[in-house]
Amino acid sequence: MVKKLKNMLKNDKQQYLFIPLGIVFILFANRITSYAPYIAGAVLILYAAINVFTAIRYPESGINLGDAVIRGIVGIILLLETKQAIAILGIVWAVISLNDAAKEINDYFRTKKFRIIGAVGIVFTIIISALLMLDPFEHFSFHVRILGIEMIAETLIRRRE
């Protein structure tokens, strides 16, 4: 069992868990929003533990140890600060999304390869991230649904590659 888990982690097969999880996020967004601090906190801690183990045990995996540790710390904060956790979670989520958009903008600038789909994605990310930062309590359920769609799409795109 442990050997299978190690092989799964080394080959990044845990990504296939995102398809059923994405479906749950789409169908039960409002319910998930009420439990989001607990879900996200626990998932971030679990993610951190698995990735810290993998990064230390398998340095060739390319997993970033620092990112794993920071995500674990954010998970702990979400579990401890439940009253404001949706705001914390929403703002952190928005900042991470904006950081990803910034990386994509930099990639476009460096490679000079403009794609309309990518540009639309960047603009969409910036708009919904700004909305989430401005009012995390109001927009959180919508973002849970978007996350579900993104989890499914990302897994299918990676699978095709």
General description of the model:
This protein has 161 residues and is mostly helical. Helices cover 84% and strands 0% of the residues. The chain contains 7 helices and no strands. The chain has helices spanning 2-10, 18-27, 29-57, 65-80, 85-111, 116-134, 136-160. Helix 3 runs antiparallel to helix 4. The protein is globular and about 45 Å long. The mean pLDDT is 85.
Low-pLDDT windows of residues? none
Instruction: Give a quick account of the main beta sheet: strands, pairing sense, barrel closure.
Output: none
Structural class based on helices, strands and sheet pairing: mainly alpha
Helix tally? 7
Approximate shape: globular
**Strand percent estimate:** under 5%
**What share of residues is helical?**
over 70%
* Mean pLDDT level: 85
Strands, count: 0
Distance between the termini: 28 Å
Please give the radius of gyration in angstroms.
17 Å
Element order: H for helix, E for strand: HHHHHHH
Give keywords:
161 residues; mainly alpha; 7 helices; 0% strand
Describe the secondary-structure layout.
Blueprint: H1 2-10, H2 18-27, H3 29-57, H4 65-80, H5 85-111, H6 116-134, H7 136-160
Helix pairs in contact: 2-7, 3-4, 3-7, 5-6, 6-7
Summarize the structure.
This protein is an all-alpha fold and 161 residues long.
